[in-house]
Amino acid sequence: MKKTLKRALAILSAAALLGCAASAEYEYAKPMLPAGEVEIMANVPKIDHGYIVGEMTVKENSDTIVGEDDTHLYKADGAFVLNDKGQALTFEDIKPGDKLTYYVDGNAPMTLQLPVHYSPAAVVVATENSYVNQVIGVFDEDGLANDESLKLNYDLSTPYFSHTREAAFISGKALVLYENTTRSIPPQTSPAAIVKLTDDEPEAVPPFMGHGPQIADTDAYISGSLAVDENGETLAGKDGAGEEIHLYKNENTLIINKQGEEKTFADIKAGDSLIYYVSASEPMTLQLPVHYTAEVIVIDDGSDVNVLLGNFDAELLDAVNSLVLHIGENTKIYGADGFNGGTALALYNFATMSIPAQTTPIAVVVMANQPQAPTPADVAPDLSGVRKIVAGDSTLGYIPVTVNGVQMLPVREVAEALGYSVDWIEESQTVTVGFASFTVDQDAYAFAKMAPQALGQAPVLIAMPGDVYAKTYVPAIFFTAVMDGRMTVDGDTLIINAAE
User: Fold this and answer.
1) Confidence of residue 315 (pLDDT cuts 50, 70, 90)
2) For a surface tag, which of 27, 65, 294, 421 has the fewest beta carbons within 10 Å of its beta carbon?
């Protein structure tokens, strides 16, 4: 049925395009419905490529954006806010009477409350007398939508919004704003803006609502499940894919059940289901079937207890902003006297429907393999002994200087030696280095449309002996933290290479 409807819409769209007068090369395109959707009534949210799409007229801008239909939009961190001309805005720029379209990731947690509250991934505010189409599509590297309904012609001047380091749209799922199209098949357009969206379609089960483990991605640990066949010299069984797994009986392995009660290897019997966590840095034997030494084993009795492995900050918010822990007086803590953040395994029953969800855990296991914060040497080495700079294939006649304890390098000389173009924009008092930018008096360095980051010192103008004009110096870590380059010291020589 969906395929038939899509084909019918495609044929009608093509017929409409071909039936237009032949005198003009471009035409204003009528706003298109998402593929497979039929509009029944206005302002009713639709589902398009895994996103909830709705329209509202703003009634109030306070703690939330409130529509005249009483829909609320949270002022979500990381949400893209722009107008339909592709100009970046903030939530505070939205005023009563504005008409806007909101896009909500169907995979994001949502509160169960009335009136409806959404955390939008993107908000597009209509400008006066505008006639701009907004469509979501999946586009290939040539800018062609996978249903061949539209082809994008864009370049680095096209306003582009993304959470990645890409300076321009390459491929994938995107929200596209455009006005006019050619009469070709497929229609082609130069978009007013492109917003990169999450490529994954929503999962059937929302987070924190199902049975069994829901494990966050952490690079420090290997996790899996095991159905025990035998408790002998090792715990032997099969994982979910039917592969045989062995767990060594190590005296340092912590074993608990879902109620947070400590158990022993002797308490595990054939038929039990286990969830195990193995340090990724643990030495492993090269033998088949696979043998692991687990740091933690959870005996899974099938009860409604969630098991989450995550990296938590000082406020006990996990790294993916999905869960906040509130340690209660009955919360059992293993591996430490208390828990103030870091990598931990949390067992909990219920969570609030807020964003992020909040819970008082049954138990918290503080894991041994804690993440290590990067030191300044990980980003840029000590340059105090450097007497020569080699950038790319060029040897520069400069040495690092120190300003307020921060090691600085001449930005134009290093950047151009690495192959980047450096420009000065008088109107905005901005220096651009490739896709990066900054202003001379602000400790704020941005890459493409990503949020600026502080590097500990604003750019400064310095005239060294022999210089006719002052040169702009930036913190040395600009070339690593912002430009993603590589920096090493060999004796008295600093070697800088551009990002691969």
Assistant:
1) confident
2) 421
Buried-exposed string 235-257: b where 16+ CB fall within 10 A, e elsewhere: bbbeeeeeeebbbebeeebbbbb
Of 119, 48, 84, the closest CA to residue 194 belongs to: 84
- 377-497 folds as Copper Amine Oxidase; Chain A, domain 1 (3.30.457)
Alpha-carbon distance 42 to 44, whole Å?
Answer: 6
Q: How far is CA 84 from the centre of its chain?
A: 23
Do the bridges between strand 122-125 and strand 80-83 make them parallel or antiparallel, or are there none, so unpaired?
Answer: parallel
**Where is 290: in which H helix or E strand?**
strand 290-292
Task: Write the secondary structure of 193-207 as one string of H (helix), E (strand) and C (coil).
Answer: EEEECCCCCCCCCCC
Token digits of residue 472? 């702009």
Radius of gyration of the chain, Cα coordinates, nearest whole angstrom: 28
Q: Where are the domains of the chain?
A: 1-204, 206-372, 377-497
> What are 260-280's pLDDT values in tens digits?
999 999 999 999 999 999 987
Predicted confidence band at 169 (pLDDT cuts at 50, 70, 90)?
A: confident
Each residue's pLDDT tens digit, 71-118: 999 998 889 999 999 888 899 999 999 999 999 998 877 777 788 899
Q: What is the pLDDT of residues 213-235, one digit of tens each?
A: 344 445 678 888 899 999 999 99
